[in-house]
Amino acid sequence: MTMDSDVDDSRGKSFPFRLRLHGSAASSGIAIGRAVVIAPPHARLLNWRTVASDERPREIERYRTARAQLLASIRASLSSARLVEDARAIIESYELIATDPTIEDAVETGILRDGMPAEVAVSTTYAAHIRAIAESSDPFLRERRFELENMRQKLVTILLSLFTPVGELEGRIIVAPSLLASDVVHYHSRGVAGFVTEIGGITSHACIVARSLEIPAVIGIRNATTIIANDVLLIVDGSRGNVLVEPDEQTIEHYRQLQFEYRQHRRAADDTLATTLDGKTIPIYASVDSPDDVPLALSYGADGVGLVRTEMLLVRLQHFPNEEEQYRWYRAIAERAYPKPVTLRVFDVGSDKILHGMPHEANPALGLRGLRFMLHRKDIFRTQLRAILRASELRNVRLLVPMVTAIEELSATIELIEYVKSELRAERAPFDEHLPFGIMIETPAAALLAEHLAQHVNFFSVGTNDLTQYTLAADRTSDLVAHIFDQLNPAVLQLLVHVATVARRQEIEVELCGDLATFLAATELLIGIGIGAFSVAPSYIPALKERIGSIHTERARSLVARALGCSDSVAVRALLRDSTLTNGEQHTQP
Ligand code: PEP
Ligand code: MG
Q1: Is position 276 within any domain?
Q2: Which of 181, 248, 383, 452 counts the most CB atoms within 10 A of its CB?
Q3: Lowest mean pLDDT across 11-20, 22-31, 197-206, 350-359
Q4: Cβ–ligand 1 contact at 590 (below 6 Å)
Q5: Are residues 85 and 216 in the same domain?
Q6: What is the pTM of this model?
Q7: What pLDDT shows up at residue 49?
């Protein structure tokens, strides 16, 4: 968590407010409202006396009554109409924790044998379980400790009769040490606008439910319940992980505008997977350049992030950042998109993205670019791989390498990945052991060697911008050869068909992240070729999803056969125009 008193928002403006608290962006959107602070029962409220033997049965009764009350409140939240299936299963799992026989036995033994008061027995039993799972190497299991902690606090609160009714909750923001998924449902049904918690992880059940109910939430603000006073005005920016305390009028106005825009996008966005007429689902990912782009991408209905051009971090900083800086940046992207997948592409420097200190070359696009540079500077590559692997802890990260031309490059990369994994294992740093690994297909060599390359990777991502540049020997940045640089050239299409055929045979995914993905007139052809997912700039997502909904894969396949018979891109364009017109749709010009 960080604190400061001024902020640069995503548009670079600066606004005054008393305090900005920074935590983790747990559920997107913006909430503006007054705080309702829910204070936890403090350990020192517990009365550590020994209960006399004849009073112990009464303590057992107190414990059982409190547990029944907790169960009743959990069950009440299950009746919420808007609860999605996942959330229902999560809340049902609380019943299992609250009635877990090992916990129950330990609490009752604490009371009967050791003479603990009920609240002390509950507190110590839950604390022992929390300690045990906090030491687990599995991040998802570790996450469950927040739920146990929350149950502990709830039971103790009930036993000590500390619960104070919080009054009118409509439009207010709950500030609590932590929340259970059932609390989120309960507060949602009472019109709560947002949540701020001190602990909890992005993968916690409460966050999953907040996201499914679309309630903005920021978590991980240590001491939030002591820093934030009841009734103060808060802005919760759940997209960026900020909480503004006592903002002034100008700030509120600005965030109201952001809130309006966010809601507009949400309304236009289609969150369901794009599906062809014959039922094939096609994920549509967003291509982004920074963590700040992720909320916007999600608001447009992105199914994840298909391409993060990490070199944009270098372009911005003008130097290679250290591991920690990179880790924070990658982690922020993974958290903001969670649980949706995020594809981090290693630095694609060289060509038109030259940094100070890089070797001067006469033809940089044909020189030490992308993976070639990274293998030339293994120190930089290792640092980036460490940061990416560490950010993969949430298991929604995929690794992608650009500018591949040879199998040896792949072997050297895999060797380095394995080396970094063994380093992290030795340090006991958590990461995803099964981090999916993919390569960009953006050189004719990679396309033609697809059969061999496919054996070492989990997915292909076709970069048609570079594939076109290198296939047609036409500089993608030059106006003079812009008429030659044509992504619909049959030579490019033939390579695409070959790559997709290999991918299908070898059962790996093939996605497309070049600009060709945004040419709606080409979508049918690309689906026919066998492209299984697309990554585009966020604003293209709604239209692309809609376009896919009008395509039938059988018909699309027949289009491919005809496109392969074309001798130039003029003929391909004419074919696409005819196809879209006979399909009764408006033509969109590539
Ligand atoms: C591409 O080459 O098509 C691609 C997506 O990568 P970039 O545009 O970053 O080179
Ligand atoms: Mg490229």
Answers
A1: no
A2: 181
A3: 11-20
A4: no
A5: no
A6: 0.78
A7: 82
Claim to verify: residue 384 and residue 524 sit in the same structural domain: no
Residue with the smallest CA separation from ligand 1 atom 6 is: 463
Regarding whether 370 and 239 lie in a shared domain, the answer is no
pLDDT tens digit string along 52-72?
999 999 999 999 999 998 888
Print the domain residue range for 177: 2-39+166-266
Tell whether ligand 1 has an atom less than 6 A from the beta carbon of residue 463. yes
- Whose CA is closest to 289, among 236, 332, 352, 351? 332
Alpha carbons 403 and 181: distance in angstroms, whole number: 44
- Ligand 1 in contact with 311 (CB < 6 A)? no
Domain final residue pick, 145, 160, 175? 160
In a domain, 542, yes or no: yes
Of the listed 22, 205, 207, 265, which one is catalytic?
A: 205
- The pLDDT of 234-250, averaged and rounded, is 94
Q: What is the pLDDT of residues 269-312, one digit of tens each?
A: 777 899 999 999 999 999 998 998 998 899 899 999 999 999 98
- Structural tokens at position 118: 């009920």
513 is catalytic: yes
Ligand 2 ion local residues (Cβ < 5 A): 442, 463, 466
205 is catalytic: yes
Integer Cα distance of 71 and 99 in angstroms? 9
Cα separation of 107 and 125, whole Å? Answer: 6
Number of domain units in the chain: 4
Q: Are residues 478 and 524 in the same domain?
A: yes
Does residue 465 have its Cβ closer than 6 Å to ligand 1? Answer: yes
pLDDT at 7 over 50: no
- Whether residues 183 and 316 share a domain: the answer is no
85: confidence class by pLDDT, cuts 50, 70, 90: low
DSSP assignment of 404-454: ---HHHHHHHHHHHHHHHHHHHHTT----TT--EEEEE-SHHHHHTHHHHG
Ligand 1 centroid from CA 487, angstroms: 12
